[in-house]
Amino acid sequence: MAHRAKRLTTEVGFPIGCIGVTLGNEVVLGGGGGAGRSGVKNKLAVYSIDSAGLELKKVSEAILSSEEDAPTCLAVHPSEKVVISSINTSKDAIQKGNNNNCRVFELSKKNVKAKGKAAKTICSTSDYDYQKCIAIDALGKLVAGGSTDGTLAVVQYPSLRQAFPYVEAAGEVNDVDFNASGKWLAVATDSELKVVSTKDGSLVQNIDGPHTASGQPAVFRFAKFGAGNKSKLKNGTELRNVLYTVLNTKSRKLAYIAMWDTKQWSRIATRPVCQSAITTFALSPSGKLLAVATASLQIAICDAHTLKVLLRIPAAHSFAITALAFDRDDKYLISGSADETCQVLKLPETWPNALDGVVDLVMANLQAVIIAIVLLIAILAALVVRS
């Protein structure tokens, strides 16, 4: 199925670090060369998708300061033409404790411009630390950010005032996500998954010692709450009451997705999806599809109800895949890479059957399959000679 999927890659001229999709299905890309004199500009750029050819066409952009970092994460407001992004300030400002990294940008057909005052959501005074992940609740009133220094910040929108004091995590924060009601916030670190109340940051649930179904040690890489109105699993659990976690084994040779029932806080299922560490994870707006990208540059799309892999795209980019996002209608999957390209994949109207899935798996591991066949033929030949 992978080779039949229609996709088009567009060169954008800067390394992509983050992606968002607006209510009008425009694609927002953040990235650049970072602080210094790399010659690669830091940008927030907006593109439209040409539905006929899948080409990205630039709508507007903001060229950001070369004295500051490139955008490291962004979230699109659910009802306003606004993007909230984290951009580290200059090294001197950071060391003085003035890293007003959390910034609001207004989007229009003419430009992308800063709106209002920026706010500080990182405690660290080291320019090596940055905000790794961001999320905004469904009502657009709260923004959460997790940083490499192990702190969680939640601010109110549009004031950007702290909703409650910083929460200390067990390590570098890998992912944050609000549930459908906006009352809970999931916070994932390598060794621990916290769910906290958005009212005051108090602990709702804590899951530590991540492991696969067989007990193999793993790390929590991503955590996202399910979505969709009244869509249910076979056991009757509504998708909006499911929490998905990505588990990378510590050997980084296998990656799993696990589903948790947030009513009982029990694990529903754990399924292997890739033979390489997952580096990027996205959930479609309808809640029906999941997408992952791996360290081996593969993209896989899964059924959110069963975790079954529906489609694999081997060698999707030539360098690290840094971001994934679905459009608002589940028609496209957009991927961004450090290789300065953005790819639009048109999602099939119907998904492959079990046989197609087997073919996909074989194609994704074709070299290993050929070697195994050659070795088998050699062994059989040796046995014939001996007899």
UniProtKB/TrEMBL annotation:
Q: How does it sit in the membrane?
A: Single-pass membrane protein
Indicate whether Protein transport appears among the record's keywords: yes
What sections of the protein cross the membrane?
A: 366-385
Principal location class? endoplasmic reticulum
Output the superkingdom of the source species: Eukaryota
Alphabetic keyword roster? Endoplasmic reticulum, ER-Golgi transport, Membrane, Protein transport, Repeat, Transmembrane, Transmembrane helix, Transport, WD repeat
Q: Which InterPro entries match?
A: Quinoprotein_ADH-like_sf, Sec12-like, WD40/YVTN_repeat-like_dom_sf, WD40_rpt
The alphabetized list of GO BP terms reads:
endoplasmic reticulum to Golgi vesicle-mediated transport; protein transport; regulation of COPII vesicle coating
Q: Which GO terms describe its molecular function?
A: guanyl-nucleotide exchange factor activity
Compartments, as annotated in UniProt: Endoplasmic reticulum membrane
GO CC term (a single one): endoplasmic reticulum membrane
In Swiss-Prot or TrEMBL terms, this protein is called Prolactin regulatory element-binding protein
Q: What is the taxonomic lineage of the source species?
A: Eukaryota, Fungi, Fungi incertae sedis, Zoopagomycota, Kickxellomycotina
